[in-house]
Amino acid sequence: MDKPSPLSRAREYERAHTADDPSERPLFHLTPPVGWMNDPNGFCRYQGEYHLFYQYHPYSTQWGPMHWGHAVSGDLLCWRDLPCALAPDTAADAGGCFSGSALPLADGRLMLAYTGVAGEPPRQAQCLAFGDGVDFEKYPGNPVLPPEQLPPDCRSADFRDPKLWQGTDGTLFMAVGDRHRADSGTVLLLSSRDGLQWDFRGALDSGRALLGQMWECPDFFALDGRQVLLVSPQEMQGGGDFHPGHHALALLGRYDEAACRFTREAALPLDWGLDFYAPQTVLAPDGRRILIAWMENWGYCQQTPRRHSWYGQMTLPRELRLADGRLLQQPVAELARYWQGTVRREADLTPAPLRLPGVSGRTLDLTLLLTPGEGRPRFTLRLAADEAHETLVLYDFARQELVFDRSACGSRQDLAHIRRVPAAPRAGSLRLRLILDRESAELFIGEGETVLSCRIDTPQRAGDITFAADGPLHIAAQAHPLGI
Ligand code: FRU
Protein backbone atom coordinates (compact mmCIF):
# COMPACT_ATOMS: atom_id res chain seq x y z
CA MET A 1 0.00 0.00 0.00
CA ASP A 2 1.19 3.55 -0.73
CA LYS A 3 2.42 5.53 2.23
CA PRO A 4 -0.15 8.22 3.12
CA SER A 5 0.89 11.76 2.23
CA PRO A 6 1.87 14.07 5.14
CA LEU A 7 -1.44 15.93 4.67
CA SER A 8 -3.66 12.84 4.74
CA ARG A 9 -1.68 11.53 7.70
CA ALA A 10 -2.29 14.80 9.59
CA ARG A 11 -6.00 14.73 8.69
CA GLU A 12 -6.32 11.13 9.77
CA TYR A 13 -4.48 11.90 13.01
CA GLU A 14 -6.77 14.78 13.90
CA ARG A 15 -9.85 12.66 13.13
CA ALA A 16 -8.61 9.91 15.43
CA HIS A 17 -7.27 12.10 18.27
CA THR A 18 -9.66 15.02 18.66
CA ALA A 19 -10.89 14.45 22.18
CA ASP A 20 -13.71 16.85 22.58
CA ASP A 21 -14.56 17.54 26.16
CA PRO A 22 -16.14 20.97 25.69
CA SER A 23 -15.89 21.82 29.39
CA GLU A 24 -12.12 21.65 29.02
CA ARG A 25 -11.99 24.26 26.30
CA PRO A 26 -12.60 27.99 26.24
CA LEU A 27 -16.05 28.88 24.91
CA PHE A 28 -14.96 31.43 22.32
CA HIS A 29 -11.18 31.39 22.13
CA LEU A 30 -10.12 29.17 19.28
CA THR A 31 -8.03 26.14 20.29
CA PRO A 32 -6.63 23.44 17.96
CA PRO A 33 -8.52 20.12 17.74
CA VAL A 34 -5.39 18.35 18.94
CA GLY A 35 -1.73 19.25 19.37
CA TRP A 36 -0.02 22.61 19.26
CA MET A 37 -1.17 25.98 17.90
CA ASN A 38 0.69 29.24 17.40
CA ASP A 39 0.17 32.26 15.11
CA PRO A 40 -3.11 33.03 13.37
CA ASN A 41 -2.68 32.68 9.60
CA GLY A 42 -4.78 33.55 6.57
CA PHE A 43 -7.48 35.36 8.56
CA CYS A 44 -10.02 36.22 5.86
CA ARG A 45 -13.62 36.37 4.83
CA TYR A 46 -14.39 33.81 2.12
CA GLN A 47 -17.71 32.61 0.73
CA GLY A 48 -19.73 34.19 3.52
CA GLU A 49 -17.67 32.93 6.47
CA TYR A 50 -14.59 33.91 8.43
CA HIS A 51 -11.69 31.56 7.84
CA LEU A 52 -8.87 31.35 10.30
CA PHE A 53 -5.82 29.20 9.69
CA TYR A 54 -3.06 28.82 12.24
CA GLN A 55 0.40 27.41 12.85
CA TYR A 56 -0.21 23.84 13.87
CA HIS A 57 1.61 20.72 14.98
CA PRO A 58 -1.06 18.05 15.38
CA TYR A 59 1.24 15.32 16.70
CA SER A 60 2.24 16.88 20.03
CA THR A 61 1.53 19.80 22.30
CA GLN A 62 4.95 21.24 21.45
CA TRP A 63 6.01 23.26 18.43
CA GLY A 64 7.16 20.95 15.61
CA PRO A 65 7.18 20.79 11.80
CA MET A 66 4.60 23.40 10.97
CA HIS A 67 1.28 22.58 9.32
CA TRP A 68 -1.65 24.96 8.82
CA GLY A 69 -4.71 24.16 10.94
CA HIS A 70 -8.04 25.58 9.83
CA ALA A 71 -11.36 26.68 11.33
CA VAL A 72 -14.39 28.65 10.10
CA SER A 73 -16.96 30.78 11.83
CA GLY A 74 -20.03 32.82 10.98
CA ASP A 75 -19.63 35.19 13.91
CA LEU A 76 -15.93 35.09 14.91
CA LEU A 77 -16.79 33.40 18.22
CA CYS A 78 -18.10 29.90 17.55
CA TRP A 79 -15.58 28.07 15.41
CA ARG A 80 -15.93 24.83 13.47
CA ASP A 81 -12.79 22.84 12.74
CA LEU A 82 -11.95 22.07 9.14
CA PRO A 83 -9.32 19.52 8.15
CA CYS A 84 -5.66 20.48 8.29
CA ALA A 85 -5.02 22.73 5.27
CA LEU A 86 -1.28 22.47 4.60
CA ALA A 87 1.41 20.00 5.60
CA PRO A 88 5.16 20.20 4.94
CA ASP A 89 5.27 17.89 1.91
CA THR A 90 7.21 19.50 -0.94
CA ALA A 91 10.85 20.36 -1.60
CA ALA A 92 10.03 24.05 -1.02
CA ASP A 93 8.54 23.53 2.47
CA ALA A 94 9.93 20.22 3.75
CA GLY A 95 11.02 21.98 6.97
CA GLY A 96 7.62 23.55 7.62
CA CYS A 97 4.81 25.73 6.31
CA PHE A 98 5.31 28.90 8.33
CA SER A 99 2.93 31.81 8.80
CA GLY A 100 1.19 33.74 6.05
CA SER A 101 -2.06 35.15 4.77
CA ALA A 102 -5.00 34.49 2.44
CA LEU A 103 -6.62 36.41 -0.39
CA PRO A 104 -9.93 35.50 -2.08
CA LEU A 105 -9.48 35.72 -5.87
CA ALA A 106 -11.93 37.04 -8.45
CA ASP A 107 -12.21 33.51 -9.97
CA GLY A 108 -13.59 32.14 -6.67
CA ARG A 109 -10.43 30.46 -5.43
CA LEU A 110 -8.74 31.25 -2.14
CA MET A 111 -5.03 31.96 -2.47
CA LEU A 112 -2.73 31.24 0.48
CA ALA A 113 0.73 32.76 0.78
CA TYR A 114 3.02 31.13 3.32
CA THR A 115 6.69 30.74 4.10
CA GLY A 116 8.27 27.48 3.05
CA VAL A 117 11.25 26.43 5.14
CA ALA A 118 13.72 24.07 3.48
CA GLY A 119 17.37 23.05 3.35
CA GLU A 120 20.23 22.92 5.80
CA PRO A 121 20.88 25.49 7.12
CA PRO A 122 17.16 26.23 6.73
CA ARG A 123 16.24 28.96 4.29
CA GLN A 124 12.93 30.72 4.07
CA ALA A 125 11.06 31.53 0.87
CA GLN A 126 7.53 32.58 -0.02
CA CYS A 127 5.15 29.98 -1.45
CA LEU A 128 1.56 29.85 -2.71
CA ALA A 129 -1.34 27.42 -2.53
CA PHE A 130 -4.77 27.68 -4.16
CA GLY A 131 -8.00 26.06 -3.08
CA ASP A 132 -11.73 26.03 -2.50
CA GLY A 133 -11.70 26.84 1.21
CA VAL A 134 -11.08 23.25 2.34
CA ASP A 135 -8.54 21.60 0.01
CA PHE A 136 -5.50 23.45 -1.27
CA GLU A 137 -2.99 22.66 -3.97
CA LYS A 138 0.46 24.03 -3.69
CA TYR A 139 1.72 25.96 -6.70
CA PRO A 140 4.19 23.64 -8.51
CA GLY A 141 6.56 26.56 -9.16
CA ASN A 142 7.09 27.21 -5.41
CA PRO A 143 8.80 29.13 -4.05
CA VAL A 144 7.53 32.13 -5.99
CA LEU A 145 9.85 34.32 -4.01
CA PRO A 146 13.15 32.55 -3.33
CA PRO A 147 15.73 34.08 -1.02
CA GLU A 148 18.11 34.66 -3.97
CA GLN A 149 15.85 37.58 -4.85
CA LEU A 150 16.41 39.23 -1.46
CA PRO A 151 18.26 42.54 -1.32
CA PRO A 152 21.88 41.87 -0.21
CA ASP A 153 21.46 43.41 3.26
CA CYS A 154 18.62 41.02 4.20
CA ARG A 155 18.78 37.49 5.57
CA SER A 156 17.36 34.37 3.96
CA ALA A 157 17.23 32.56 7.32
CA ASP A 158 14.73 35.18 8.56
CA PHE A 159 12.53 36.02 5.60
CA ARG A 160 8.97 35.11 6.46
CA ASP A 161 5.26 35.63 7.06
CA PRO A 162 3.93 37.10 3.79
CA LYS A 163 0.89 39.36 4.04
CA LEU A 164 -1.03 39.70 0.75
CA TRP A 165 -3.43 42.41 -0.32
CA GLN A 166 -4.77 43.94 -3.49
CA GLY A 167 -4.01 47.57 -4.32
CA THR A 168 -6.53 50.03 -5.70
CA ASP A 169 -5.67 49.26 -9.37
CA GLY A 170 -5.64 45.48 -8.86
CA THR A 171 -1.88 45.21 -8.29
CA LEU A 172 -1.02 42.54 -5.75
CA PHE A 173 1.16 43.53 -2.84
CA MET A 174 3.02 41.43 -0.33
CA ALA A 175 4.70 42.55 2.90
CA VAL A 176 7.29 40.13 4.32
CA GLY A 177 9.18 40.29 7.61
CA ASP A 178 12.97 40.12 7.63
CA ARG A 179 16.02 40.59 9.78
CA HIS A 180 18.29 43.19 8.30
CA ARG A 181 21.99 42.34 8.54
CA ALA A 182 22.37 45.11 11.13
CA ASP A 183 20.08 42.99 13.38
CA SER A 184 17.15 45.23 12.91
CA GLY A 185 13.58 44.18 12.12
CA THR A 186 12.26 45.26 8.76
CA VAL A 187 9.23 44.71 6.53
CA LEU A 188 9.89 44.37 2.80
CA LEU A 189 7.30 45.39 0.24
CA LEU A 190 6.82 43.57 -3.09
CA SER A 191 4.36 43.92 -5.90
CA SER A 192 3.09 41.64 -8.67
CA ARG A 193 0.59 41.62 -11.53
CA ASP A 194 -0.15 37.87 -11.39
CA GLY A 195 0.97 36.69 -7.93
CA LEU A 196 3.67 34.51 -9.47
CA GLN A 197 6.40 37.05 -10.36
CA TRP A 198 7.28 39.49 -7.60
CA ASP A 199 9.31 42.72 -7.66
CA PHE A 200 10.89 44.34 -4.63
CA ARG A 201 9.63 47.83 -3.94
CA GLY A 202 11.85 48.58 -0.95
CA ALA A 203 11.37 48.44 2.80
CA LEU A 204 7.97 49.48 4.11
CA ASP A 205 9.51 50.29 7.47
CA SER A 206 12.33 49.16 9.69
CA GLY A 207 13.10 49.24 13.39
CA ARG A 208 16.47 50.95 12.88
CA ALA A 209 17.86 48.70 15.64
CA LEU A 210 15.47 50.28 18.17
CA LEU A 211 12.39 48.09 17.89
CA GLY A 212 13.57 44.49 17.98
CA GLN A 213 15.95 42.42 15.89
CA MET A 214 13.50 40.69 13.57
CA TRP A 215 10.00 41.74 12.58
CA GLU A 216 7.63 38.79 12.26
CA CYS A 217 4.05 38.58 11.00
CA PRO A 218 3.35 41.93 9.31
CA ASP A 219 -0.17 43.13 8.56
CA PHE A 220 -0.95 46.37 6.73
CA PHE A 221 -4.28 48.16 6.39
CA ALA A 222 -6.09 51.49 6.41
CA LEU A 223 -7.94 52.48 9.57
CA ASP A 224 -9.93 55.65 10.18
CA GLY A 225 -7.90 57.88 7.89
CA ARG A 226 -4.48 56.45 8.76
CA GLN A 227 -2.42 53.44 7.73
CA VAL A 228 -1.45 50.77 10.25
CA LEU A 229 1.51 48.41 9.98
CA LEU A 230 1.39 45.61 12.55
CA VAL A 231 4.65 43.87 13.34
CA SER A 232 5.73 41.35 15.95
CA PRO A 233 9.34 42.15 16.86
CA GLN A 234 11.60 39.54 18.41
CA GLU A 235 14.10 40.51 21.08
CA MET A 236 12.86 43.98 21.89
CA GLN A 237 14.79 45.86 24.48
CA GLY A 238 12.47 46.88 27.30
CA GLY A 239 11.92 50.49 28.31
CA GLY A 240 9.23 53.14 28.14
CA ASP A 241 6.03 51.55 26.89
CA PHE A 242 7.74 48.31 25.87
CA HIS A 243 8.52 45.18 27.81
CA PRO A 244 11.59 43.18 26.78
CA GLY A 245 11.36 40.13 24.53
CA HIS A 246 8.77 39.41 21.86
CA HIS A 247 6.26 42.21 21.41
CA ALA A 248 3.44 43.19 19.07
CA LEU A 249 3.37 46.76 17.80
CA ALA A 250 1.03 48.96 15.82
CA LEU A 251 3.00 51.42 13.68
CA LEU A 252 0.66 54.24 12.73
CA GLY A 253 1.32 56.48 9.77
CA ARG A 254 0.42 57.46 6.25
CA TYR A 255 0.77 55.47 3.07
CA ASP A 256 1.34 56.68 -0.47
CA GLU A 257 0.43 53.61 -2.49
CA ALA A 258 1.70 54.99 -5.84
CA ALA A 259 5.12 55.72 -4.34
CA CYS A 260 5.00 52.58 -2.11
CA ARG A 261 5.97 54.81 0.79
CA PHE A 262 4.83 54.37 4.39
CA THR A 263 5.66 57.23 6.75
CA ARG A 264 5.50 56.20 10.36
CA GLU A 265 4.15 58.70 12.89
CA ALA A 266 3.88 56.56 16.04
CA ALA A 267 4.75 53.12 17.44
CA LEU A 268 2.34 51.75 20.05
CA PRO A 269 2.20 48.48 21.97
CA LEU A 270 -0.91 46.60 20.87
CA ASP A 271 -1.38 44.73 24.10
CA TRP A 272 0.21 45.22 27.52
CA GLY A 273 -0.53 41.72 28.78
CA LEU A 274 1.62 38.66 29.28
CA ASP A 275 0.27 36.56 26.41
CA PHE A 276 -0.19 38.19 23.04
CA TYR A 277 1.70 37.74 19.78
CA ALA A 278 1.54 37.63 15.98
CA PRO A 279 -1.81 39.44 15.46
CA GLN A 280 -3.60 39.43 12.11
CA THR A 281 -6.69 41.29 10.97
CA VAL A 282 -9.65 40.85 8.67
CA LEU A 283 -12.11 43.37 7.27
CA ALA A 284 -15.70 42.47 8.20
CA PRO A 285 -18.44 43.04 5.58
CA ASP A 286 -19.75 45.96 7.65
CA GLY A 287 -16.36 47.71 7.53
CA ARG A 288 -15.05 46.77 10.97
CA ARG A 289 -11.35 45.90 11.17
CA ILE A 290 -11.11 42.79 13.38
CA LEU A 291 -7.90 41.65 15.04
CA ILE A 292 -6.99 38.29 16.51
CA ALA A 293 -3.68 37.15 18.03
CA TRP A 294 -2.04 34.12 19.54
CA MET A 295 -2.61 34.32 23.31
CA GLU A 296 0.78 32.99 24.34
CA ASN A 297 4.32 34.10 25.02
CA TRP A 298 7.37 32.68 23.24
CA GLY A 299 9.41 33.50 26.34
CA TYR A 300 7.98 30.53 28.24
CA CYS A 301 5.27 28.67 26.31
CA GLN A 302 7.49 25.68 25.61
CA GLN A 303 7.83 25.06 29.37
CA THR A 304 4.34 25.68 30.71
CA PRO A 305 2.37 22.60 31.86
CA ARG A 306 0.22 20.70 29.38
CA ARG A 307 -3.24 20.01 30.82
CA HIS A 308 -5.08 18.97 27.67
CA SER A 309 -4.54 17.09 24.41
CA TRP A 310 -4.16 20.53 22.82
CA TYR A 311 -2.07 23.58 23.62
CA GLY A 312 -2.38 27.22 22.54
CA GLN A 313 -5.34 29.50 21.98
CA MET A 314 -6.23 32.69 20.18
CA THR A 315 -7.35 35.92 21.81
CA LEU A 316 -10.93 37.05 21.55
CA PRO A 317 -11.39 38.84 18.19
CA ARG A 318 -11.42 42.62 18.68
CA GLU A 319 -12.68 45.59 16.76
CA LEU A 320 -10.07 48.27 16.08
CA ARG A 321 -10.67 52.01 15.83
CA LEU A 322 -8.46 55.07 15.77
CA ALA A 323 -9.59 58.19 17.61
CA ASP A 324 -7.43 61.22 18.50
CA GLY A 325 -4.27 59.24 17.68
CA ARG A 326 -5.32 56.50 20.09
CA LEU A 327 -5.80 52.93 18.95
CA LEU A 328 -8.97 51.61 20.59
CA GLN A 329 -9.85 47.93 20.90
CA GLN A 330 -13.08 46.30 22.06
CA PRO A 331 -14.28 42.69 21.92
CA VAL A 332 -16.35 42.06 18.79
CA ALA A 333 -19.95 43.20 19.21
CA GLU A 334 -21.10 39.63 18.41
CA LEU A 335 -20.17 38.71 22.00
CA ALA A 336 -23.46 40.23 23.19
CA ARG A 337 -25.29 37.34 21.43
CA TYR A 338 -23.85 35.01 24.06
CA TRP A 339 -24.82 37.02 27.11
CA GLN A 340 -26.90 34.76 29.31
CA GLY A 341 -28.46 37.67 31.16
CA THR A 342 -27.50 40.94 32.79
CA VAL A 343 -26.65 41.56 36.42
CA ARG A 344 -26.34 45.17 37.61
CA ARG A 345 -24.85 45.93 41.02
CA GLU A 346 -23.61 49.04 42.79
CA ALA A 347 -21.66 49.26 46.02
CA ASP A 348 -19.38 51.45 48.11
CA LEU A 349 -16.24 49.43 48.62
CA THR A 350 -14.30 48.95 51.84
CA PRO A 351 -11.05 47.12 52.64
CA ALA A 352 -13.05 43.93 53.33
CA PRO A 353 -13.40 41.91 50.09
CA LEU A 354 -16.97 42.13 48.81
CA ARG A 355 -18.80 39.62 46.61
CA LEU A 356 -21.48 41.00 44.33
CA PRO A 357 -24.38 38.56 43.94
CA GLY A 358 -24.40 37.03 40.45
CA VAL A 359 -20.89 38.28 39.64
CA SER A 360 -18.68 35.21 39.62
CA GLY A 361 -17.40 32.37 37.47
CA ARG A 362 -14.93 31.87 34.68
CA THR A 363 -17.04 32.72 31.65
CA LEU A 364 -18.07 36.31 32.12
CA ASP A 365 -18.23 39.68 30.40
CA LEU A 366 -17.90 42.20 33.25
CA THR A 367 -17.82 45.99 32.97
CA LEU A 368 -16.91 48.11 35.99
CA LEU A 369 -17.07 51.84 36.52
CA LEU A 370 -14.92 52.93 39.45
CA THR A 371 -15.59 56.38 40.90
CA PRO A 372 -13.51 57.49 43.88
CA GLY A 373 -14.91 59.75 46.61
CA GLU A 374 -12.57 61.94 48.66
CA GLY A 375 -8.96 60.84 48.27
CA ARG A 376 -7.25 58.58 45.80
CA PRO A 377 -7.94 55.00 46.86
CA ARG A 378 -6.40 51.74 45.80
CA PHE A 379 -8.81 49.26 44.25
CA THR A 380 -8.40 45.47 44.31
CA LEU A 381 -10.24 43.04 42.07
CA ARG A 382 -9.65 39.37 42.84
CA LEU A 383 -10.74 36.94 40.15
CA ALA A 384 -10.57 33.21 39.42
CA ALA A 385 -10.15 32.87 43.16
CA ASP A 386 -10.65 30.23 45.85
CA GLU A 387 -8.73 29.44 49.03
CA ALA A 388 -5.64 28.45 47.00
CA HIS A 389 -5.76 30.64 43.90
CA GLU A 390 -6.23 34.23 42.87
CA THR A 391 -5.41 36.66 40.09
CA LEU A 392 -5.36 40.32 41.04
CA VAL A 393 -6.14 43.51 39.18
CA LEU A 394 -5.00 46.46 41.26
CA TYR A 395 -5.60 50.09 40.42
CA ASP A 396 -4.01 52.99 42.24
CA PHE A 397 -5.82 56.29 41.67
CA ALA A 398 -2.83 58.24 43.03
CA ARG A 399 -0.26 56.66 40.72
CA GLN A 400 -2.75 56.17 37.88
CA GLU A 401 -1.32 52.74 37.39
CA LEU A 402 -2.94 49.35 36.94
CA VAL A 403 -1.20 46.14 37.96
CA PHE A 404 -2.20 42.72 36.66
CA ASP A 405 -0.76 40.01 38.88
CA ARG A 406 -1.30 36.31 38.30
CA SER A 407 1.56 35.15 40.61
CA ALA A 408 -0.90 33.08 42.67
CA CYS A 409 -3.07 31.84 39.79
CA GLY A 410 -1.76 28.29 40.16
CA SER A 411 1.41 28.40 38.09
CA ARG A 412 4.36 26.65 39.71
CA GLN A 413 6.89 28.27 37.44
CA ASP A 414 9.13 31.24 37.78
CA LEU A 415 7.78 33.10 34.75
CA ALA A 416 6.74 36.69 34.20
CA HIS A 417 3.45 36.98 36.10
CA ILE A 418 3.03 40.73 36.59
CA ARG A 419 2.44 43.63 34.24
CA ARG A 420 2.10 47.32 35.17
CA VAL A 421 0.40 49.79 32.89
CA PRO A 422 -0.34 53.50 33.10
CA ALA A 423 -4.08 54.19 33.00
CA ALA A 424 -5.82 57.49 33.65
CA PRO A 425 -9.46 57.90 34.74
CA ARG A 426 -11.78 59.86 32.44
CA ALA A 427 -14.15 62.43 33.89
CA GLY A 428 -13.22 61.16 37.35
CA SER A 429 -13.98 57.46 36.74
CA LEU A 430 -12.06 54.46 35.50
CA ARG A 431 -13.81 52.01 33.23
CA LEU A 432 -12.67 48.39 33.04
CA ARG A 433 -14.08 45.60 30.91
CA LEU A 434 -12.97 42.11 31.78
CA ILE A 435 -13.61 39.04 29.66
CA LEU A 436 -13.09 35.70 31.38
CA ASP A 437 -13.16 32.58 29.24
CA ARG A 438 -12.00 29.66 31.39
CA GLU A 439 -8.21 29.86 31.01
CA SER A 440 -7.80 33.53 30.21
CA ALA A 441 -8.51 37.05 31.33
CA GLU A 442 -8.58 39.97 28.88
CA LEU A 443 -8.86 43.43 30.31
CA PHE A 444 -9.93 46.47 28.27
CA ILE A 445 -9.19 49.75 30.05
CA GLY A 446 -11.09 52.97 29.35
CA GLU A 447 -12.42 52.90 25.81
CA GLY A 448 -9.98 50.14 24.97
CA GLU A 449 -6.88 52.33 24.62
CA THR A 450 -5.00 49.86 26.81
CA VAL A 451 -5.59 46.11 26.69
CA LEU A 452 -4.01 43.26 28.64
CA SER A 453 -4.37 39.65 27.52
CA CYS A 454 -3.23 36.95 29.91
CA ARG A 455 -3.63 33.23 30.28
CA ILE A 456 -4.38 31.93 33.75
CA ASP A 457 -3.47 28.37 34.69
CA THR A 458 -6.19 28.11 37.33
CA PRO A 459 -8.55 25.18 37.91
CA GLN A 460 -12.09 25.99 36.76
CA ARG A 461 -13.55 25.51 40.24
CA ALA A 462 -11.81 28.73 41.36
CA GLY A 463 -14.55 31.13 40.32
CA ASP A 464 -14.80 33.73 43.06
CA ILE A 465 -14.68 37.44 42.24
CA THR A 466 -14.31 40.02 44.99
CA PHE A 467 -13.87 43.79 45.16
CA ALA A 468 -12.16 45.96 47.76
CA ALA A 469 -10.71 49.46 48.20
CA ASP A 470 -8.63 51.13 50.91
CA GLY A 471 -10.56 54.43 50.62
CA PRO A 472 -13.92 55.73 49.40
CA LEU A 473 -14.71 54.12 46.07
CA HIS A 474 -18.05 53.55 44.39
CA ILE A 475 -18.37 50.67 41.97
CA ALA A 476 -21.04 50.15 39.33
CA ALA A 477 -20.86 46.66 37.83
CA GLN A 478 -22.62 45.20 34.84
CA ALA A 479 -22.02 41.48 34.41
CA HIS A 480 -23.08 39.12 31.64
CA PRO A 481 -22.46 35.43 32.22
CA LEU A 482 -21.38 33.94 28.89
CA GLY A 483 -22.66 30.71 27.39
CA ILE A 484 -23.43 29.00 24.09
C1 FRU B 1 5.91 33.87 14.96
C2 FRU B 1 6.65 32.84 14.12
C3 FRU B 1 6.62 33.25 12.66
C4 FRU B 1 6.81 31.95 11.98
C5 FRU B 1 6.04 31.01 12.86
C6 FRU B 1 6.58 29.61 12.91
O1 FRU B 1 5.37 33.36 16.12
O2 FRU B 1 7.96 32.70 14.59
O3 FRU B 1 7.56 34.22 12.31
O4 FRU B 1 6.34 31.98 10.66
O5 FRU B 1 6.03 31.56 14.15
O6 FRU B 1 5.71 28.76 13.57
Question: How would you describe this protein?
Answer:
This protein is mainly beta. The protein has 2 domains: 6-18 and 26-334, Glycosyl hydrolase domain, family 43 (Tachylectin-2, Chain A, 5 Propeller), CATH 2.115.10.20; 339-481, Sandwich (Jelly Rolls). The chain has 1 helix and 32 strands. It has a 6-stranded antiparallel beta sheet, with no helix packed on it. It starts with 5 loop residues before the first helix and ends with a strand. The model has no long low-confidence stretch (mean pLDDT 95). Beta-D-fructofuranose (FRU) binds next to strand 1, strand 5, strand 9, strand 13 and strand 17. Beta-D-fructofuranose binds next to strand 1, strand 5, strand 9, strand 13 and strand 17.
CATH fold-type name of the largest domain? Tachylectin-2, Chain A
Number of strands: 32
Total of DSSP H or I helical runs spanning 4+ residues = 1
Percent in helix:
under 10%
Bound molecules: beta-D-fructofuranose
The CATH architecture of the largest domain comes to 5 Propeller
Mean pLDDT: 95
Give the tally of structural domains. Answer: 2
Task: Please identify the oligomeric state.
Answer: single chain
What is the CATH domain class of the largest domain?
Mainly Beta
Q: What's the alpha carbon Rg, rounded to whole Å? A: 23 Å
**Poorly predicted ranges (pLDDT <50, ≥5 residues)?**
none
Q: Characterize the biggest β-sheet.
A: 6 strands, antiparallel
| Estimated structural class | mainly beta
Q: What is the strand arrangement across the widest sheet?
A: 22-32-23-28-29-30
Distance between the termini: 44 Å
Beta-strand portion reads over 45%
Shape: globular
CATH superfamily of the largest domain: Glycosyl hydrolase domain, family 43
